[in-house]
Specification:
Blueprint: E1 2-7, H1 15-30, E2 33-37, H2 41-45, E3 49-52, H3 81-91, E4 96-101, H4 103-114, E5 120-123, H5 139-160, E6 163-168, H6 175-184, E7 188-190, H7 198-210, E8 216-221, H8 249-261, E9 265-269, H9 281-299, E10 305-310, E11 313-318, H10 319-323, H11 331-338
Parallel strand pairs: 1-2, 1-4, 4-5, 5-10, 6-8, 6-9, 7-8
Antiparallel strand pairs: 2-3, 10-11
Helix pairs in contact: 1-9, 5-6, 6-11, 7-8
Bound molecules: 6-O-phosphono-beta-D-fructofuranose.
Amino acid sequence: MRIGLLTGGGDCPGLNAVIRAVVRKGINSYGHEFVGFRYGWAGVLSAEAIELTNQSTSGILHRGGTILGTSRTNVFKEENGLERVQASLEKLRLDALIPIGGEDTLGVAGRLSEGGVAVVGVPKTIDNDLAGTDFTFGFQTAVQIATDAIDRLHTTAESHNRVIVVEVMGRHAGWIAAYSGLAGGADVVLVPERPFDIDEVCDRLRRRHAQGRNFSIVVVAEGATPKDGGLLSEFESTDAFGHVRLGGIAIQLEREIEARTGFEARMTILGHVQRGGTPLAYDRVLGSRFGVEAIDAVSEGDFGKMVALRGTEVIRVPLAEALAAPKLLDPKLFETAAVFFG
Ligand code: F6P
């Protein structure tokens, strides 16, 4: 078979592990040929692709980012998008596509699959908000980066008697915030799934300081919202999938907390640091397992599927099931993090 790979949406540690695994098993066990599209769906639309071989995909396992490049291109927002994708696949004589991405990239894959294109998706996102899989690769690395940052902020908060507000990514799900908050010993964690009351946040900080603690760490997800208001973002732009650009809620929290409590406050927005650099071993292993399962599925003609982690097993789920709704934070996990608040 001739198979096309692409990486779409935000980059994520572990993407190269998937590419390497698909190509390695595909060539060595099945004798397939591979091309990699440049910059996600943009490369598919313009038929811009490079040949992928064992040689060109060796030495990439430990590298962050994606050797193929990525973009947030929505095929269905482009003129004759579906026809152009089909024309590219014909031009490059491809039998199947393996898109590696989150809900947007795989959303396009799902619609192409309904239109008759042979696809098997691989779930990627640091946000961990894709249904159908317990974890996406990239999430654990992002959590570790955020946790390391919280550890560092702890020591400076303590030295200065400050409240430090740490803003993490995650879009409209609080997975990164809850995991890094729990691992980093945060005193308050604010997630999109639980709109917050600023008075309650300040009361909690006051109570903690009254008990003799003179510093606090507040972890806030970029998509967290106050009870009496909407999204607090510094930006107004939206991407090709209609998502508003998030970021900046920590600026307003810093200001409010300092004004209401009198405690000196500082904020840090971790931003894209969470997506960069070396993937953890966990994400290299998960990405490799996903890649191997994806090429097995393609080779068996088991299309319209997404590979997924359930418990300790890698399985295949229908793309439609994975895309039905985002996977929001498990309330039980939040309750566990809350045991350590204040
Ligand atoms: O989906 C991954 C993610 O990093 C989100 O957490 C964040 O909101 C978004 O992507 C940022 O996107 P961009 O890199 O396009 O600014």
